[in-house]
Write a structure and sequence with these properties.
two-stranded antiparallel ribbon, single chain, 11 helices, 548 residues
């Protein structure tokens, strides 16, 4: 009797589970889960004057899109208030120091401003929301990650006058990733140490700036910029150690992160949490059943995006052609020897061994005609001249000559020996540099001539083809790297110059004769070398050719 009773109870439990599973499928929630709780009535809350005063506000609840979001507690709001009072003033001081330094320094400084504003939005979310899942966290930190990517992009490509500033910013912004610290096993140092390590990396480039500008004219502003950046990272490190020493201190009584993001507006909003409180409670009117409407049922198996293939019904229109094609194929295979009856016969003259045109020569039709090659050359020339030509002095220190095409009358008047000249992507042009300058560089130029008088440091020729360079005064060093075809003319005063070559070919140096009546002497820089091993070391000598 007892066994029969237990069997009946088991059957009733199985029926109950089946009914619960059916109800879960109809309502869109898993079997065994509890029904959704009734919505929390929106409580009246006084509007907040600023997000920094959240910590002083009493704890209240408000309904947002069917979910209850709890206002930050005093401890969580204190973290946000501390960020506003400790970090944000340092950010304002940093932007004040960057303002008079020009656009080149202004670009990385603006990235710092946007990144720390985005970090403030993250701190606000940490103070107001419970710990999110990995996907929600990645979405939250995405804007700051984009700013870090922009900082790294500023360090790539052609170097600007603020290259060291960009490198310092790119390294320093790495400290903002402390918000993704999840524990000792995540592969990161604790937040405070992580921020300190970021500044240690940035300090290498900051010291370069200090050495460059500490005793230079107008360098005081750059020194202040470095000091304000260091103070900003120091304030962030102190804030993180005080409020997030073991990781981001998410609010355990807060609401979901999705609701916070949906009502916070942009990341630069200073009152994102106060906006939902000002909305009337009727905005989240409950349904007649006393709870939020149930989610829609799951899509049927095999629908769009499903991994299940329900196949095509036998009676559907698309099934008929497939069946006909399969039947036709099977019928053709069952013909036996007659299946090859429709193939064309290969005659002897069609066989490769009997072809008379097997000479190995390329047919004339395969050679591209000049008429077809002309548009390609025109497109190549148009691509070179796509960018507008440029000739200007940057920051009073660097002459920039770029994208000049067939311009034979470029003259640069140098007024300060500290100035430099950078010539980039010029074709068929002639550049004259008059006066004494610090250095001159010829980069990615083709069939371009450069004439200069006196250089203090060096003349560099890189990534160029068929160029001519002449020094009418004094130059201590000429560096030639990855150049195919270079004619270098040296004056009598610059015969003591050092000529450094690497990965270059067709480099000739022309020097004046012993007297003014003598002809110029032309000598080729060796391209081939021979290395021999003797007495425990390698000896390399230029290859010499002797006739006779």
């Amino acid at each position: 009797m007892t066994g029969m009773f237990e069997q009946a109870v088991s059957r009733l439990e199985a029926v109950a589970l089946r009914l619960e599973a059916a109800e879960g499928r109809l309502s869109g929630r898993p079997a065994g889960s509890l029904p959704p709780p009734p919505p929390v009535a929106a409580a009246a809350a006084p509007p907040a004057a600023h997000a920094a005063t959240v910590g002083a506000a009493p704890q209240t609840s408000r309904a947002v899109t069917g979910c209850s979001i709890t206002a930050p507690t005093a401890a969580a709001g204190g973290g946000l208030a501390a960020y506003n009072s400790e970090v944000m003033p340092k950010l304002d001081a940093f932007m004040v120091a960057a303002a008079p330094l020009g656009d080149d320094v202004g670009k990385p400084s603006a990235v710092v401003k946007a990144a720390f504003d985005g970090q403030r939005h993250i701190v606000e979310a940490i103070a107001s929301c419970s710990r999110p899942d990995q996907g929600g966290l990645q979405q939250l930190v995405g804007p700051v990650g984009e700013q870090m990517g922009q900082a790294n992009a500023l360090t790539e490509g052609r170097r600007s006058t603020a290259f060291h500033h960009c490198k310092a910013v790119a390294e320093a912004l790495g400290g903002l990733s402390w918000v993704v610290y999840s524990g000792p096993s995540c592969g990161m140092n604790p937040p405070g140490q992580h921020v300190a390590d970021a500044w240690s990396s940035a300090e290498f480039w900051a010291n370069k700036l200090l050495v460059e500008h500490r005793n230079s004219d107008g360098g005081k502003g750059h020194v202040e910029w470095v000091k304000s950046l260091k103070a900003l990272l120091g304030a962030l490190e102190g804030y993180v150690k005080a409020h997030h020493a073991s990781g981001p201190s998410w609010n355990p009584a807060g609401g979901p992160l999705a609701s916070f993001e949906g009502n916070s507006g942009s990341s630069n909003s200073n009152n994102a949490l106060a906006a939902p409180a000002a909305q009337p409670a009727a905005a989240t009117k409950p349904t007649a059943r006393g709870g939020p409407p149930p989610p829609p049922p799951p899509p049927p198996a095999g629908g769009p995006g499903s991994l299940l293939d329900r196949g095509t019904p036998a009676g559907s229109p698309s099934a008929a052609p497939a069946a006909d094609s399969r039947a036709t194929l099977l019928a053709a295979l069952n013909k036996g020897d007659s299946v090859t009856g429709g193939l064309r016969k290969v005659t002897d003259d069609m066989k490769t061994k009997n072809r008379a045109d097997r000479t190995g020569a390329v047919p004339a039709a395969a050679v591209s005609s000049p008429a077809k090659a002309a548009p390609a050359a025109a497109r190549g020339a148009a691509a070179v001249a796509a960018k507008p030509p440029r000739l200007e002095l940057e920051g009073g220190r660097k002459w920039v000559i770029e994208h000049q095409v067939n311009n034979k009358e470029i003259i640069v008047e140098v007024t300060d020996p500290k100035q430099t000249a950078y010539i980039y992507a010029c074709t068929g042009s002639t550049i004259q540099v008059r006066g004494k300058l610090n250095a001159v560089t010829l980069d990615q130029c083709t069939k371009t001539a450069l004439v200069f008088e006196n250089v203090v440091a060096s003349c560099e020729i890189v990534n160029s083809k068929s160029v001519q360079v002449q020094c009418t005064g004094i130059v201590p060093t000429v560096a030639i790297d990855k150049v195919d075809g270079c004619q270098l003319y040296l004056s009598k005063e610059s015969l003591g110059a050092s000529v450094l070559t690497a990965k270059s070919s067709e480099v000739n140096v022309v020097t004046p004769g012993a007297t003014e009546e003598d002809d110029f002497l032309e000598a080729a820089i060796p391209e081939q070398f021979i290395s021999t091993y003797a007495n425990g070391k390698w000896t390399t000598e230029a290859v010499t050719h002797s006739g006779g």
